[in-house]
Structure formats: C-alpha cells, structure tokens
Design a protein that fits this description.
The protein is an alpha/beta fold and about 325 residues long. It has helices spanning about 5-15, 60-65, 125-140, 185-205, 225-245, 290-295; strands at about 25, 30-35, 35-40, 70-75, 105-110, 115-125, 145-150, 210-215, 250-255, 275, 305. The two termini are about 25 Å apart.
Length: about 325
C-alpha cells in the first residue's frame, strides 16, 4: 500500500477517533451535542462539489469557514454533476472532465459526456475515497461538521452528466428520464443507488463530524412527490440497516419539501433526526424554511438545520490546475 495512503488512513482513524458522532442534545432536542458541548451549526455557503472536483482547494475553503467562526458545510458526494458553466464559472459541481472524481472507477471505454472514459459501476475508485476522507479529516481539524447529502433531484442538465446515466457507464444501465430516476420504479438503478449509499456510510463511519442526509429538493424537477417519498423512505432504511452493523450511528436528516404532512415530510419518522429546512417560507406546497419553519415545526422536537445558500468571499474559488 502506498505510504501516502497509509498515512492518510492513520490520520483519518486518529481524527475520527471513534468518538461519539454529533448527536441531538439529550436535554434539548432542538440543539446538537458535539464533543461534549451544546452546539448550533452556522455557515454561510455550500461548496457542494468540494470532493468531486479535484481542482477545488478545499483547505482554503475550510480555512475561510473557520476564520469566520463557522462550523458547518454540506457536500454532494457523487452522482449529481452539472454541465460546465452552469450558474457560475467557479461552480464546484461543474468540473472539467479531467478534474471530475467519483466513487466509481473509470473504465477503458471512451464516451463520458464531457470527455474521458466511461465509468465502471462494478469498480470503486480508491482515489475518491482518499479525497473524501481527507476532506473530513481537514474539516475535523477545524471543528467543522460535514453534512453528506447523498442525492439532489436530477434535472434535464444534470442527469446526462451522472455516471449512473446509461451513456456514461460501461454497463449501459439506466436508460430512464431524469424525473424517473429517484423512484423505486427501476430495480437495477435502485440497486446501484443502494450500493453507493452503503459504501459512503461505511467509509465515513469512524468520523464524529458527519451528518447524513438522503436527498435535497427531491421533487423540484418533476419527480412525482409520492414516488419520491417512497424512494427516500427506502434509502432511510438502507442507511439504518448499514449502520446497524457498524460501530457508529450518525444523525440522519431529510429536507422537508412541502406540503407538511405530505409524502416528503419525514419530520415524524423515527429514523430521521434532523429536519432540513431551506431558504425562506415560500408556500406550504413548496419550500418550508426561514425562522417561520423553526416555529412551525418546533413541536416535532428534533434538531433543525435551516439553510440559505450564499457565497463566501471571492478568495475561496476553484483553482484550475496547469495543463499536464
């Protein structure tokens, strides 16, 4: 085994330390307990693609969070990729193909959408898991909690970029429309999603600065709400079953996307401990967020994690590597 990989694995074990992961405070379920202290998670930005984009200097990003006294960030670990140039030239979720790293290894067959070889869904890429763990180690060293959100609702632009899309993997799997892929309708795709979730859960189990989440904005791009809710519920059980055989048990969150009491409201689910609200209160059928959501959902007696996307100062940017 390479010395650098051995050293990183040792550092991860020490940093994770098998300490009890961040959890709901036993005396007040609206707060967290992290390393023996009552904690509120505060941040100003999400660089969702911090791990999947090799060109992104996540140490600079984490240093910036710490310098502002912030203690939380959120990532999408894989599968959701945006086309280059989407939203902003520095969008970490839209890396150049040469900088894209995923848990699945590249195969020998060319044809990935933005260049390079297709992915082999039967093989994991060790380099990816080294980078994921180092991100958690570096966040850990700065006292920052990382929320790992497995999925975001696929859309017309993102789905053709995903390794799970049939043209991007050597297996030729998942010939489905974007608004059909985060449901239980296609067992072969669900199996791949389960494999991905299980592997991430297993790899990050030793870290105490991790919260898990199933899916952000699950029906924003046309997935039927009832089908999205059933799919999320299935993956909640996948996480629970996976951690049942592991030393650590992490908090699991899910965004409440309206209506409250609808199929994507997991605020009363016994295995979902964190209520993720988003932006501001828009309409009860869409986004439930802001201070109003804290009051409205207070009687659920669970930790809340409000979110409003923002940007840190311009110095925290993707640093493109020089051509090889």
């Amino acid at each position: 085994m390479p010395k650098t990989l051995c050293a990183l694995m040792l550092l991860g074990a020490v940093a994770g330390g098998w300490a009890e992961p961040i959890r709901v405070h036993p005396d007040n379920p609206h707060f967290y307990l992290f390393r023996g202290r009552a904690t509120v998670l505060v941040t100003s930005a999400e660089h969702y693609g911090a791990v999947i984009n090799r060109a992104f200097d996540y140490n600079a990003y984490l240093d910036a969070l710490k310098s502002y006294g912030l203690n939380y960030t959120r990532i999408y670990p894989a599968a959701f990729i945006e086309p280059e140039g989407t939203f902003d030239p520095g969008n970490t979720l839209a890396p150049h193909s040469v900088d894209l790293i995923q848990p699945w290894a590249r195969g020998q067959t060319p044809g990935y959408r933005s260049g390079g070889n297709r992915f082999d869904l039967d093989r994991w890429d060790p380099e990816y898991f080294v980078r994921l763990k180092d991100f958690l180690v570096q966040a850990d060293a700065r006292g920052i909690v990382v929320e790992i959100c497995f999925f975001n609702a696929q859309n017309r632009g993102s789905w053709p970029m995903s390794p799970l899309y049939w043209k991007n993997n050597i297996q030729g799997e998942s010939r489905w429309d974007y608004n059909d892929v985060q449901t239980l309708k296609h067992p072969s795709l669900v199996r791949r999603q389960e494999e991905f979730v299980r592997r991430i859960v297993q790899e990050v189990n030793s870290f105490d600065n991790v919260i898990l989440e199933i899916c952000d904005e699950p029906f924003s791009y046309g997935t039927p709400r009832t089908l999205a809710g059933l799919w999320i519920g299935h993956l909640v059980e996948v996480v629970r079953q996976t951690e049942s055989t592991l030393p650590q048990k992490h908090l699991l969150g899910q965004q409440i996307q309206g209506p409250i009491g609808g199929p994507v409201d997991f605020t009363t689910h016994p295995n979902v401990s964190v209520i993720v609200t988003q932006y501001i209160w828009q309409t009860p059928d869409e986004q439930v967020g802001g201070m109003k959501a804290l009051d409205y959902l207070y009687d659920r007696n669970k930790a809340d994690r409000p979110q409003r996307d923002g940007l840190l100062p311009p110095r925290v940017v993707v640093r493109r590597r020089q051509s090889r």
